[in-house]
Amino acid sequence: MKKSVLKQLISYLFRYKWWTLLALFFILLTTVIRTAIPLVARYYIDHFVSQQVGQSGLLLLVGYYFLFLLRVVCTYLGSYTFSRVAYSIVRDMRQETFATIQSLGMAYFDKTPAGSIVSRITNDSQAVADMFGTVFSSFIASFFIFVATLVTMLQLNWQLTLFILPFLPIIWGSIWLYRKLSNHLVMMTRSKLSDINVKLSESIEGMRIIQAFRQEERLVGEFEAINQEHLSYANRSVNINSLFLRPAMSVLKVLAYAVMLTFFGLNWQMASFTAGLMYAFIQYSNQLFDPLIEVTQNFATLQTSMVSAERVFAMMDRKDYEPRQAISNQEVTLGNIEFKNVSFSYDGETDVLKDISFSVNSGETIAFVGHTGSGKSSIINLFMRFYEFDRGHILIDGVDIRNYSQSALRQAIGLVLQDPFLFHGTVDSNIKMYQENLTREDVVAAATFVDADGFISRLPNGYDQTVTERGSTFSSGQRQLIAFARTVAAKPKILILDEATANIDSETEEVIQRSLKKMRQGRTTIAIAHRLSTIQDADCIYVLEKGRIIESGNHDQLLSQKGTYQKMYQLQSGMLN
């Protein structure tokens, strides 16, 4: 059990210290009652069983059963309050983990499957709830009961208690050995469960491709293999649990009973050895061993919960952005952009951008063209701070972009992708993006500006039309126009167009181009394009090849250079024989 993980878990308990203290009170009260019950039974057996039971004996018997009822009530209240704390803690963990995910760079999502992230937030955090709600309360209750019972047994008969004590190191040794053998299996079981979620998520997202290419049987086979691995590790855990938990503990418990009965049999003539004492000692022996058995039974859950907590905290504690010289309240004012000798590698070995330098003044439009893999999108990824770079400088209005807060930077930049993402909700909410300062009039104005109001108004519910997941009921052109309206409504100073017309048909492209032209007016614009016809009016076009700028100039200048740009233009225009 890692101390750092345990320390973080305990810190969550302090958030709900009053509920935790209340739960501890009920557990302590339950311990006192459980300790008192055998003593009451001993007194009743020694003083009333062998003689006429009078009024005092009946009252004692009623009190004895009342203690049982009170024990049940206190046990329930202790479990209830601990469960309340547990689910409050899990809610906080899920909320904080989800908030962390929103701030992580794209590099994390490139390396981590979506199913694994979902598994950590759902399955792993639920395992933590099980620990707080069941295991943690059980451990505390077991500790209280163990200590109280041991102290009471020593007071009743310390000689007999000493005969039983040698069993305790054996039990603790069994627990240590169980932990040693089960830890790896528990980790692998959780890991395989995460793999199951990854495969399930991937299959659902790619179902069209799976069915189109008749890959159903292969995916079922792969899922079965992962599922079988999970079952194998789970079964191996069960085997260890079956050996070291209740069966082994029960054998030790029976041996302890044998020691006690032998001791009583050899010393029954002693005056202090009454039937009540024998009964009380047997009950206390149960209470001494039962907490240890319960601890060992819950140890598997504790192992799982600690591994799960470690996985959740590993995600929660990620810090992808650490501004070097953060300037408070710094905002983008003009939108002048400059790249100075920027180089970048995704894997730390092979540079995808090599010594990139360019500048664009406020209100101008520049474009990047080049073959696939030339580095066009990487420039946008760095400018949006989806990825961190450590060589060169990127400046906005003369200030390093790492000195802007994430909020200020993103507020100044409007990004339009080739495959726009629409969220579940309405057309209105997708254009507003839940910015409370935007009114319906602002939404309609933005949609009208980009020529989207026409088709939106013809929808059955207009701007209140329901948008399903990813906007699947809209055409690609309609989704793009809604994305344009969303960007215009945000009023960015800088506009990024990442192949915004790549997936649009020729007829729709005319509407898109008119909208783009209006969007670019008065804004600094960086465009990435495969279709050279869409960026011919750019102030400057940069041609990229293998991460380097090899040509630059406006459309006419590049054609006159008779280089790579001219060849690309001729290929797309059908002029090359």
Automatic annotation (TrEMBL):
Pfam families: ABC_membrane (PF00664), ABC_tran (PF00005). GO terms for cellular component: plasma membrane. It is found in: Cell membrane. Its main location: membrane. PROSITE patterns: ABC_TM1F, ABC_TRANSPORTER_1, ABC_TRANSPORTER_2. The chain crosses the membrane at residues 21-45, 57-78, 131-154, 160-178, 254-282. Residues 337-571 form the ABC transporter domain. The keyword Protein biosynthesis does not apply. It is a multi-pass membrane protein. Residues 21-304 form the ABC transmembrane type-1 domain. This is ABC transporter ATP-binding protein. It comes from Streptococcus minor. The lineage of its organism: Bacteria, Bacillati, Bacillota, Bacilli, Lactobacillales.
